[in-house]
Design brief:
Elements: E1 22-31, E2 34-44, E3 49-53, H1 60-67, E4 75-80, E5 94-97, H2 109-117, H3 126-132, H4 148-160, E6 166-170, H5 178-193, E7 197-201, H6 205-211, E8 214-219, E9 222-227, H7 229-233, E10 237-242, H8 249-255, E11 261-264, E12 269-273, H9 278-290, E13 296-302, H10 305-313
Membrane topology: Peripheral membrane protein
Main location: membrane
Keywords: Antibiotic resistance, ATP-binding, Nucleotide-binding, Transport
Length: 318
C-alpha cells in the first residue's frame, strides 16, 4: 500500500481538564419492549484508547451512537469531554467514523475530505492523509465505486482530518486487508501518542489487545468486565495442543500437578491450565505417548483477550 509521511497529529490541547473523555453512568436505551442497554456504566479516560467489546446485539452500537449524539438515552447520563453529547460545540472537537460510512455515494474521495476539512480551523492536509491511507490513486473515484475496505479508510480519514480531541471509531478495520489494517493500527497509535482520546469498537480481539489501554466488555446491555488487557488476561500461561477428539481428560488430570485444569474446546483442541512449567509439560507429553497420541502444535502461551471474551459472553451464536 502506498505510504507517505503525513502531517503530525499533535495533541489538541496543551492542558486537559480532569474530566474523562467519555463518562457513561447508568445508561439505558430501549427499543419498544427490548432493552438494548441496561444500566451501563464506564469511563474512557483522556489520551487513552478505550475498546468497547461485545457480541452482536450486546448494546455496543447503541451506546456509541448515544455518545456521538445520534440517539437519545432513555435513562442515565452521558458526558463527552464534560458536555452533553448533543452540544453543538462538540462538533469541532470530536471525530466520528460511523460503521455505515456516511459519505454521499457520488462524492469523490478528495472532494469529500476537502469538504470535511473546511469545518475545522486547523485540518490536516487532505492529500497527505489520502496518501497515508493508500487512497491517492482513488482521489477522483466516487465513494460508491470504492471497495468496502477503501470506503472504510476514507471514513477513517474524515474522522481524523480535523485534529479532534476525541475520536469514535466503529469497527474501523472491518473488511480491510492486512496492510490496510496495520496502517489503521499505526494511525490509532499515533493519535494516542499525540494525546487524542479514542473510543473503539471492534470484533477483532487481537486488535483490542494490541491497541487498547482499557477494555470494556459488555453483554446484554451491561458491563461484564473491564480493565487493561493485561489485567483481564492475567499472567497465567496455558499449554495447548491438537490431537484426536475425545481424549480421556479425567485420566490426564489425575497425572497432572494439583490445581491443574484441562478442557477440550473445540473438538480436538486441548487446553491445560495451571502451573505451566517443565514438570507439567513432561507429564502431558509422557501421558500422550503412553496413550499412543500425537500432540500436534504443542505450545505454551498466555491466555488471550479472546479467551476471556468467550468465557464471559459464551460461545453460542446469537
Amino acid at each position: 500500500m502506498e505510504s507517505r509521511a503525513a502531517d503530525p497529529l499533535p495533541g489538541p490541547v496543551p492542558r486537559q481538564p480532569p474530566e474523562p473523555a467519555v463518562e457513561v453512568a447508568g445508561l439505558v436505551k430501549r427499543y419498544g419492549a427490548t432493552t438494548a442497554v441496561d444500566g451501563l456504566t464506564f469511563r474512557a479516560e483522556r489520551g487513552e484508547v478505550t475498546a468497547v467489546l461485545g457480541p452482536n446485539g450486546a448494546g455496543k452500537t447503541s451506546t456509541v451512537e448515544i455518545c456521538e449524539g445520534f440517539r437519545r438515552a432513555d435513562g442515565g447520563t452521558v458526558k463527552v469531554l464534560g458536555l452533553a453529547p448533543t452540544r453543538p460545540e462538540l462538533r469541532a472537537r470530536v471525530g466520528i467514523m460511523p460503521q455505515a460510512g456516511g459519505v454521499p455515494p457520488a462524492t469523490r474521495c478528495a472532494e469529500w475530505l476537502r469538504l470535511v476539512a473546511r469545518f475545522y480551523a486547523r485540518p490536516l492536509d487532505s492529500g497527505a492523509l489520502l496518501a497515508r491511507l493508500g487512497l491517492t490513486e482513488h482521489a477522483r473515484t466516487p465513494f460508491r465505486r470504492l471497495s468496502g475496505g477503501q470506503q472504510q479508510r476514507l471514513s477513517l480519514a474524515a474522522a481524523v482530518i480535523g485534529r479532534p480531541e476525541l475520536v469514535f471509531l466503529d469497527e474501523p478495520t472491518a473488511g480491510l486487508d492486512p496492510q490496510a489494517r496495520h496502517a489503521c493500527w499505526d494511525l490509532v497509535a499515533e493519535l494516542r501518542g499525540s494525546g487524542v482520546s479514542v473510543v473503539l469498537t471492534t470484533h477483532h480481539m487481537d486488535e483490542a489487545e494490541r491497541l487498547a489501554d482499557h477494555v470494556v466488555i459488555i453483554d446484554r446491555g451491561r458491563v461484564v468486565a473491564e480493565g487493561s488487557p493485561a489485567s483481564l488476561t492475567g499472567a497465567e500461561r496455558q499449554l495447548r495442543f491438537r490431537a484426536r477428539p475425545g481424549l480421556a481428560l479425567e485420566e490426564l488430570l489425575n497425572a497432572l500437578p494439583t490445581g491443574s485444569a484441562a478442557k477440550e474446546s473445540p473438538a480436538g483442541h486441548y487446553i491445560i491450565e495451571g502451573l505451566v512449567g517443565p514438570e507439567l509439560l513432561a507429564t502431558v507429553t509422557a501421558w500422550c505417548a503412553a496413550e499412543g497420541v500425537t500432540a500436534d502444535d504443542l505450545r505454551i502461551e498466555r491466555r488471550t483477550l479472546e479467551d476471556v471474551f468467550l468465557e464471559l459472553t459464551g460461545k453460542e451464536l446469537r
